[in-house]
Amino acid sequence: MDDPQDRSGRGDLTSAGIANLFPMVVARIARGNLTYSERGKLNERAAQIEPRWRAGLFNGIEYFHLRFPEQGALLAAFLLQERLHRIVPESLTPASPEEVEAEWRRMAEQRAAILAWARDRRALMDIVQSYRFERRRGAYSNSAHAAAAEIVKQIDHTISDPMTYAGVCIEWAEREHREWFWRCAPNHQLL
C-alpha cells in the first residue's frame, strides 16, 4: 500500500498541476453509462496501471490522466478490449472498436466545423468568456458550461446541441491557452 502522504487528494492539484504531473491523457467516449461492475473494473485497472491516476468528465468525454505514454497505451487498449466506450446517450450499449474509431473521426470533423462556425461569427471569445465569468463567480463546470451554451443559442437559435458547441469552444481555449484560460478562477486558483 502506498504512503498516504504520497497521495494527493482531489483538491490538492490544480488543472495545471495535473497536466504537469500526469501529461498522458486517454479519453473515453462517455455519453452512455457504465454498469457498477464496469466502473469498478475500470477504476481497478486504472489503479493497477497508475495508482495516482486522475480523471475528469467534460462534454461527454471522460479523460484519464496518467504519467507515462506506456500507461496511456495500456488503458486505451483496455477501454477498447472491454468495450467501455459509450456512444449512445443514456444507454448501457457498448461500442465496438470500429464504432469507436468512426465516432472519434466524426467528432474531429464536428470539432473543426464548430470552431469554424464560432470563428466565422466572431463568437469564440464570447462563448469562452461566458464560461470563465461563471467559473470566476464560483459556478461549477456544468453550470458555467450551460451559461456558455446560452450564448451559443443567442448567436444561432437553430443549433440543436448548444452544449456541444460551447464545449468544443471551451476545450479549445483550455487546450490552446491554458494559463490564460484558468486565470478566471478566484485568487488565480486553478479549478
Looking at this protein, list some descriptive labels:
about 190 residues; mainly alpha; Alpha-Beta Plaits; 2 domains; three-stranded antiparallel β-sheet; 8 helices; about 10% strand; disordered N terminus
CATH topology term of the largest domain: Alpha-Beta Plaits
Helix-strand makeup class: mainly alpha
- Order of strands, main sheet, comes to 1-3-2
Order of helices and strands: HEHEEHHHHHH
Please state the second-level CATH architecture of the largest domain: 2-Layer Sandwich
Head-to-tail CA distance between termini: 29 Å
Number of E-state strands = 3
How many separate structural domains?
A: 2
Rg: 17 Å
Helix content: 55-70%
Task: Report on the architecture of this protein.
- This protein has helices at about 15-20, 35-50, 70-80, 95-120, 125-135, 140-155, 160-175, 180, and strands at about 25-30, 55-60, 60-65.
- With about 190 residues, it is mainly α.
- The chain folds into 2 domains: about 5-95, Alpha-Beta Plaits; about 105-185, no CATH class.
- Strands 1-3-2 form a 3-stranded antiparallel beta sheet, with helices on both faces.
- Strand 2 and strand 3 (about 60-65) form a beta hairpin.
- Helix 4 (about 95-120) packs across helix 7.
- The radius of gyration is 17 Å and the shape is globular.
- The two termini are about 30 Å apart.
Topology:
Layout: H1 15-21, E1 24-29, H2 36-49, E2 54-58, E3 61-66, H3 69-81, H4 97-120, H5 124-136, H6 141-155, H7 162-176, H8 178-182
Antiparallel strand pairs: 1-3, 2-3
Helix pairs in contact: 2-3, 4-7, 5-6, 5-7, 6-7
